[in-house]
Amino acid sequence: MRRNLWITKSLVYLLLVLGSLFCLFPIVWMVRTSLIDIGALYQIPPRIIPEILHWDNFRMALDAYPFGRFFANSLLITTLSILGVLLSSSLCAYSFSRMEWKGRDKIFGIILTGLMIPFFVVMIPQYVFWNALGLTDTFVPLVAPAWFGGGVFNIFLLRQFFLGIPRELDEAAKVDGAGHLRIYGQIIVPLAKQAMIVIGLLTFLASWNDYLGPLAFITSERNYTLMQGLTLFQGSYSAQWNLMMAATAVIVIPSLLVFLIAQRHFIEGIAMTGIKG
Amino acid sequence: MNVTTDLANSRETVRRSGSRQRAAKELCYGLLFASPVLAGYLLLVLVPIAASIYLSFTSYSVGTVPEWLGIANYKNLFSGADPFFYPAVRATFYYVFVSVPLGIILSFFAALLLNQKIVGRSFFRGIFYLPVIIPLAASSMVWMWLLQPDFGIVNYLLELLHLPTSQWLGDTTSVVPTLILFSFWTLGNTIVIFLAGLQGIPRHLYEAIEIDGGSGFHKLIYITIPMSSSIIFFNTVIAFINGFQVFVQPSVMTQGGPNNRSLFYVLYLFNEGFKSSRMGSASAIAVLLFLVIALFTAMIFFFSKSLVYYEGKGEQR
Predict the structure, then answer these.
(1) Among B26, B73, B136, B142, which would you mutate to test the A interface (most chain A Cβ atoms within 10 Å of its Cβ)?
(2) What pLDDT score was predicted for residue B312?
(3) What are the chain A neighbours of B44 within 8 Å (beta carbons)?
(4) Transmembrane segments in this chain: where (chain B) (predicted)?
(5) pLDDT at residue B301 tops 80
(6) CA-CA distances (angstroms) from residue B35 to A96, A118, A126, A130, A192?
């Protein structure tokens, strides 16, 4: 019996290590490739750890296109999206959980199903709409959805969180003469900080990693995001994998950093949104 | 006596009209607070869907006036007059019906492993989740390099082990299987949702089996899998919905090639709308996607009420 347990345990570890290798190796190989020179790309057998680290690959890759500008564009879009989602989704969740009004739950149900509609289904009319307003090739179509609640998960998660906050708190505040805006801003939102952090992080990822949105709405190069910059790069440096991996690493690093800082929140957040969505 | 009831009555009327007023006020504030999402629903979902349906019956490209065509766009798709529709449907079905079941099995298995009492559990969880946070456009690029037929590390390692190598993304027969393999790299979300579900299974059920002398295998078959049925179902349907919308990977890695073998449905939709500027026809393609996804979404709502068991949910509240 005991020996069996030991065998099972080692098997579990073995499989976990193999899975981890599968998950990690591509990232390691990206970093490794970003630091070698073009000759080492085609060297056989390849060295796992390169002899000389070519840090200037990064400079060369970033100089090839205005990556600084793309970076700033991505950063602006992401920041505005996070602000928009945090503000609008919490206001809406407050209305759907802490306020009593007629038809509230019915409307919430309808919106819930509606917001499940994938972007591809509404992409063409949305383009036509923004185009008619003269707003294609600006950041507005990329940021606007965030200011409209930013998706079903955010509102659902926050509403769930708000419902768990004791009613007595609002009532006490009401007796003291506080209005809804005060209760929202000074009681409910501070208490739901945890959920707000999760939503902020998920919005960061969705916005920073977005590829399709910019591809559909942004046309001129000065408005490109980092993802578009990367494909631009791919077009002209397709054989120089070391430079390409350097450019890719620059895009991956911010996501990695955010993940390393807030790993726990991410995993909890996915679990929360996933089950209940 | 009389005086007190009168007083009570008048108080009652004051309270009632007051509460009606208050209800109206609450309705106003409620709608005001909810207005961002209400406006978003109207502007970004409801009107666009109506517009999609309308445009799908027209010939429309940006800058032109939509011209009514009736069902011509749909006829064009289904009759095969459009040479890309059926290849796109075929590629997507191939991808979805292989990657989803395999992905569900793999991620359920991974969640079981990550749920064991082992050293470094949260570390392993972090690693398995890590690929999800990498921008898909970036990881597509990395995988292209890994799978490069001549100088890629994967073929090199296979050669080293005397295993057959492959053209991977470069060959008509191997391109979809390669993309399926890549899809396994980003199963972290599904794994985490499974994990949360596994943690919701009450411990006393396992103890009961242990007392009866059941093995780990019995626990899996009689408790873990049945108790996870709701989440397995949920994850499967979500995976199908997402699978129908694979876009970034083929867009970055293959552009639909070779020979349209990886021209997935939404890539085809995007090309039709934005590259060929046939927005009417693209709308018809989008409407069909909408129908399929609406069907799958309805399945979630329908089955989640009857089929599945939600003890985990009850315990969490």
Answers:
(1) B142
(2) 43
(3) 122, 126, 144-145, 148
(4) 27-55, 93-114, 126-146, 179-199, 220-241, 282-303
(5) no
(6) 11, 21, 20, 20, 21
pLDDT digits (tens, 9 = 90+) for A239-277: 899 999 999 999 999 999 998 888 877 777 666 655 443
- Closest chain B residue by Cα to residue A184: B33
Degrees (nearest 5) of the Cα angle B153, B156, B160?
Answer: 135
Are B31 and A101 an interchain contact pair (Cβ–Cβ within 8 Å)? yes
- pLDDT tens for B194-228 read 998 998 899 899 989 889 888 888 999 999 999 99
- CB atoms A251 and B126 under 8 Å: no
Decide yes or no: CATH 1.10.3720.10 for domain B77-304: yes
Best-predicted range by mean pLDDT (A3-17, A51-65, B235-249)? B235-249
Contacts of A12 in chain B (CB under 8 A): 113, 116, 118
What is the pLDDT at residue B12?
61
Indicate the domain borders of chain B.
2-55, 77-304
The b-or-e profile of A153-191 (16+ CB within 10 A means b, else e) is bbbbbbbbbbeeeeeeebeebeeeebebeebbeebbbeb
Task: Determine the distance in angstroms separating the CA of A184 from the nearest CA of chain B, rounded to an integer.
Answer: 10
Q: Tell me the pLDDT of chain B averaged across its residues.
A: 89
ipTM of the complex: 0.90
Q: Residue B166: CB partners within 8 Å, gap ≥ 6? A: B149, B155, B158, B174, B178
